[in-house]
């Protein structure tokens, strides 16, 4: 699955970039390194990689500028932020920027390769779809269609919608959503779910579609017509 899969690594620490590139190459990935945000954006536009890894510590907070630029340019590949801290504020900043996930330093090859593999190695059965009203989610092609219009989603947006569509008409708590979509519980308050629900609503309702993701006050969200 990994053979020749293109990955863009945006990292200005030369030694770390070379180490990560070597580990990824040994695992079968085809790696392109960019040492600044501008070069990273150019490489992603040119190569259309399957995954992008961006160091949060790029000079001048440019990582938080680069991720939205990548999304605006049409990049729907998973974006991982490499971060040195794991505070609630850091997590919120990561997800609000448009990144799908984060990986904590210090860098450990086995853990990083496992994280990359989780995003790139699909185990979804062929031919499986989820449907709710005029909304179709194809689990193989990762296409989302509503009223014959294709909707481009990031990996985390897709996973959130898939979870909601797996339990239509069921009121899902914030805790259930965090555990099943992000894979862990947040400590304290975080608005990451609200941020991603807002993204989904904007995309799903863009062509005049009525709201399907409903807020359940004090509980969480429900997919309801």
Q: Could you characterize what this model shows?
A:
GO terms for molecular function: phosphorelay response regulator activity; transcription cis-regulatory region binding. It holds the Pfam family Trans_reg_C. Keywords: DNA-binding, Phosphoprotein, Transcription, Transcription regulation, Two-component regulatory system. This is DNA-binding response regulator. It comes from Chamaesiphon polymorphus CCALA 037. By secondary structure, the protein is of the alpha/beta class. The chain folds into two domains: 117 residues, Rossmann fold; 95 residues, Arc Repressor Mutant, subunit A, CATH 1.10.10.10. Helix content is 40%, strand content 22%. The protein contains eight helices and twelve strands. The protein has a five-stranded parallel β-sheet with strand order 2-1-3-4-5, with helices on both faces. Strands 6-7-8-9 form a four-stranded antiparallel β-sheet, covered by helices on one side. A hairpin with a 2-residue loop joins β8 and β9. α2 packs parallel to α3 and α6 packs across α7. About 4% of the residues have low confidence.
């Amino acid at each position: 699955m990994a053979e020749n899969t293109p990955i863009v690594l945006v990292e200005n620490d030369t030694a770390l970039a070379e180490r990560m590139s070597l580990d990824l190459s040994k695992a079968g990935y085809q790696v392109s390194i960019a040492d600044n945000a501008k070069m990273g954006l150019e490489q992603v536009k040119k190569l259309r990689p399957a995954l992008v890894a961006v160091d949060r510590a790029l000079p001048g907070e440019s990582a938080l500028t680069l991720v939205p630029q990548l999304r605006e340019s049409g990049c729907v590949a998973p974006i991982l932020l490499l971060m040195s801290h794991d505070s609630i504020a850091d997590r919120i900043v990561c997800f609000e920027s448009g990144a799908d996930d984060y990986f904590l330093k210090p860098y450990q090859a086995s853990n990083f390769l496992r994280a990359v593999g989780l995003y790139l190695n699909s185990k979804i059965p062929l031919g499986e779809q989820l449907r709710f009203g005029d909304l179709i989610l194809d689990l193989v092609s990762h296409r989302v269609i509503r009223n014959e219009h294709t909707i481009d989603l990031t990996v985390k947006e897709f996973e959130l919608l898939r979870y909601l569509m797996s339990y239509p008409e069921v009121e899902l708590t914030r805790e259930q959503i965090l555990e099943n979509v992000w894979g862990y519980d947040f400590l304290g308050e975080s608005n990451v779910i609200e941020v991603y629900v807002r993204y989904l609503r904007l995309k799903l309702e863009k062509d005049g579609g009525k709201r399907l993701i409903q807020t359940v006050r004090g509980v969480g969200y429900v997919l309801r017509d």
